[in-house]
Design brief:
It is built from 4 helices and no strands. With about 110 residues, it is an all-alpha fold. Keywords: Cell membrane, Membrane, Transmembrane, Transmembrane helix, Transport. Its main location: membrane.
């Protein structure tokens, strides 16, 4: 269950990052309230995951999910640059997240 909580927390991080763009510097009430609620929910699920998972691993994976998800949304939804360097860096983050997950799971 902690890995499920961590994935949910990471996806909520992507959602609040997108919402943050919509707040226009916290000047739009509706998007600001939604973004704040998404932030709280993301931290809540991260805290549930931290009951069991190591802090460094959970935090790195949480931010990795957020970074990759937000970068991909930026590329596909907000038409941000699709340079080879950006894509390679995204792949490096993914490989780091997968590596941390594998290193944190005890052998069967």
């Amino acid at each position: 269950m902690p890995w499920f909580h961590l994935i949910i927390a990471g996806l909520l991080e992507v959602a609040w990052a997108i919402g943050l763009k919509q707040t226009a510097g916290w000047t739009r009430l509706g998007p600001s309230l939604i973004t704040a609620a998404l932030m709280i929910a993301s931290f809540f699920f991260l805290s549930l995951a931290l009951r069991t998972l190591p802090l460094g691993t959970a935090y790195a994976i949480w931010t990795g999910i957020g970074a990759v998800g937000t970068a991909l949304i930026g590329i596909f939804i907000f038409d941000e640059p699709r340079t080879a360097a950006r894509l390679v860096c995204i792949l490096l983050i993914i490989s780091g997240v997968v590596g941390l997950k594998l290193a944190s799971t005890p052998p069967a």
